[in-house]
Amino acid sequence: MLNNFLDNRCIELKSNYDSYEDLITNVSRELLKYGYVKESFLENILGREKQYPTGFELGGKYNIAIPHTDMENVLKPVIYIVVLDRPVMFKSAEDGKSDISVDIVFVISLNEKDKHIVVLEELMKIFSKNDLIEKIKNSEDKDELIRLIYEEE
């Protein structure tokens, strides 16, 4: 299921950003360039992240964030994955206040309501496996990362 939303161009490995705003801004530009989102995407995803933070502590070595926005900002569905070389701070989805040091970001861009729940369920399965998260974090190439996710389905 998740493989239907992966595009090799929408995966970054060993990336560095100074803030989650920088990361989301760059991802939004790339998604716009590839025709996945509308120009309204950036403003909306940043606003949503401030209002409803998406940082999650997984209880293992690495933490994740799953920024997303309303489907009317999306033209074609995709999950943009950023594996960070050094962590970026996101606010906790749990309390909205605590800082979480995030290592992997899954920017979810979907344009069908029924797909959101299914995609989140599939991602939660991945997030529950610390060994898989570690393999994703240590991926050396994009095809390897896609294969790891494909093998989980």
Automatic annotation (TrEMBL):
Domain (PTS EIIA type-2) ranges: 4-152
SUPFAM superfamilies on file: Phoshotransferase/anion transport protein
Domain of life: Bacteria
PROSITE patterns: PTS_EIIA_TYPE_2 (PS51094)
CDD domains found in the cross-reference section: PTS_IIA_fru
Signal peptide segment: none
Name of the molecule in the record: PTS IIA-like nitrogen-regulatory protein PtsN
Organism the protein comes from: Sebaldella termitidis (strain ATCC 33386 / NCTC 11300)
